[in-house]
Structure formats: structure tokens, C-alpha cells
Amino acid sequence: MSKAEIDIHNLPYADGDFFAFEQLLSAKEQDRLAEVREFLAREVKPIAVDCWNRAEFPMDLIPKLAEIDLVSPVKRQGYSNLFAGILHAEATRADTSIATFMGVHDGLFTGSIEALASQEQQDAWLPDIYSLKKIGAFGLTEPLGGSDVAGGTRSTARREGDSWILNGAKRWIGNATFSDWVVIYARDVDDNQVKGFLVDTKTEGYRATKIENKISLRTVQNADITLDNVVVPDFFKLANANSFRDTNKVLKVTRLAVAWQAVGQQLAAFDVARRYAVERTQFGRPIASFQLIQNQLVQILGNAVSSMGMMVRLSQLEDAGEAKDEQSALAKAFTTARMRESVALGRSILGGNGIVTDFEMAKVFADAEAIYSYEGTHEINTLVTGRAITGISAIV
């Protein structure tokens, strides 16, 4: 078959959902997913590579994201965790950076408010958060604290009358160069417990500096944050954020979301690699006609399907209120390992064209490295799972 005879817009299994997992969604959820897919294809995909190349965030996209209304699909809009997961995978499939922007604002930041703020605080803050009138960030990771931040939070909070004084530093904080608010987790010097605070980024003593020279998620504006005697009124101390166990309630759910991102990244690799394989001709025919190329495409698809199957079941457990931390940890470790393999295979299929963003795969390949590391490294999530199945901790 010649290139001219191949209809690249009508390939079999166009959505990559080889085992039809999306049929588990309600009719309403399937319609909503189709609506968001159309939005992503129209508003996100066309600008994704250019924004990534320039390492600039498309601020004019925020009102459009507000209009499509993606924030808090489970708690506020009543959709299932399965729908929310597939939605996050689709956003990642379109562009990992925009999906990460939403994951920070919606999952980490909004999730902190929904899970740890009092009802009075939620009533005061959530309307602007849901409508994207206020953009949020999540400040947990520190320059010297990543995997050990649970017991090694160096940023401090000190109560003084009706206020708290925050000092310290945070690193890798997504959205922080332009966010209106950021949830800062800091160790209370009086009881040594990690507590959460909503900080207005215009507050004196708060400074966010963009991290430059990234090779992954270049559109995302990660920042170094410094806190120099930042005064936070007591009302802005999250009422139910009083220990790291409370913080972990947020992380358990967002770790599940990142595993869904790994699914979306594999589907993106499959999309780009398959299209390239049927378009690219060598030796007078499409490279998709060669056995080794088909083998690699099937391996990418198999990785995506196995990852999605795991995530479908875990989302069902989450909907039933039965999901456990170690299950989220295993999901994050497994799906990101499969993702790393998949994007490498995809890059290989594109040959030399796989290392330039003109053909998109280089961006997919590079962005996978961030997903592999954030929300707990592969090694730490592996050891969390290992602790669960042996009863013995190999971490400390």
C-alpha cells in the first residue's frame, strides 16, 4: 500500500483504548470526555510544542480552561474517580505540561483545600479556585528535602498571636511564578508537626524564582520559593492540616492522578509513533509494514493497556473508598516504568526525527522523565509497596 492510499485520519483503534475501558464510564461521562477531547484538540494540541520550545506558559489559555470547567470533577461535579482519571490521561495525551498545570492547581492545591480546610475556609476560597479566578500552587518539596520531606521538612512555622511566621525554602513548585495563592507546608516549631498554610503570593517576604534550563515539562513554570518572615493570619492556617498524615491524604489521591498521567503519556507515544510509522516510507513502502516496527508499536500499546487496566481497577477502589496508599504507590511505580519503556520505543521508531520537537516525540520522550520522578520517585514508591507486602520498611 502506498502512502497516498493510507488514510491517516481513519486509522483502526483511533482512540488507543484497545480493551474499550471507556465503556465503563456512564453515558454522561462519555459525552463529557468527548467534549473535553474536542477542546484539547482545538485549543491545546496546536500550541503545545511551540510553548514547550519557548518554555513559556500560554496565559491566554487559562480563561478557556475556566470556560470548559475542569476543576474538581469528583467532589464538585459528581463524576467518578474513573472519569477523572481518564480525563487526566487525555489532558496528558494532548500536552503533559498543561495537564501538569491542572494537576497542580486542581489535584494538589485544590485537593489540599477540599481535604484540609474547614467549611468556613472552603466557602471563602473555593469559588475563586474552581473558576480559575485564583490560580494555586502546592509548596511541599524543598531544596534539600524530596523523598524524606515527611520527617525532614526544614521550612518552619512559628505562632505569634493571631498570625504565623513562615521561614524557609521550597523547590520545584509548579505554577508558582504566576499563582495567586500557594499552600505551604511547614514544620511548627512548637510541636514539630507539619502544618499547612494558604499564602497570598503578594505577601511581603515571599519570592518565587523560575527554574531555568529544564529538559522536561518546559511549559510548566516551576519555581524556587523563599519565605522570609512571611506573616500569615491564623484564618489562613488550614484547619485540618496538623501533621504529615493529613498532608498524605492529598498525596494519596494525586499519586493516583500521576499514574493516570503515565497512561496518557503512553497513549501520546502510541499516537505519534503509529502516525509516523504509516506516513514514513523507506525502501519504497511505509515503515509500518516492517515486522520490527509493528513489534515496537504493539509493545507500546500493550504497556498502555496494562497500565490502564491497573488504573481502572484502582479508580474503582477509590470510588468505593477502599484504595490504599500502597496501591497508589505500586500504580505510580508500575505505570511510569512502562511509560519510560514506551516513550523510548516511540523515539526509536522515529529515528533521528525522534530527537527534534518538530515531530513531537522528543517532547513526549522528555516529559516522561518528570512524571517518572514527581509524586514520589520510582524507588520510593517501590519501597512503600515492599513495606506493605513484607511488613518491613527498607526506607529507614
Oligomer: single chain
Largest sheet: 7 strands, mixed
Estimate the global geometry from the Cα principal axes. globular
Estimated helix fraction: 40-55%
Element order: H for helix, E for strand: HHHHHEHEEEEEEHEEHHHH
* Strand segment tally: 9
- What structural class do you assign from the helix and strand content? alpha+beta
Residue windows where pLDDT falls under 50 for at least 5 positions:
none
Q: Mean pLDDT, rounded to whole units? A: 95
Q: Separation of termini?
A: 59 Å
- Content of β-strand: 5-15%
Q: How many alpha or pi helices?
A: 11
Nearest-angstrom radius of gyration?
A: 21 Å
Please, could you describe this protein's structure?
- This protein has about 400 residues and is an alpha+beta fold.
- The strands form 2 sheets. Strands 1, 2, 3, 4, 5, 6 and 7 form a 7-stranded mixed β-sheet that branches. Strands 8-9 form a two-stranded antiparallel ribbon.
- Helix 4 packs antiparallel against helix 7 and helix 9 runs antiparallel to helix 11.
- It is globular.
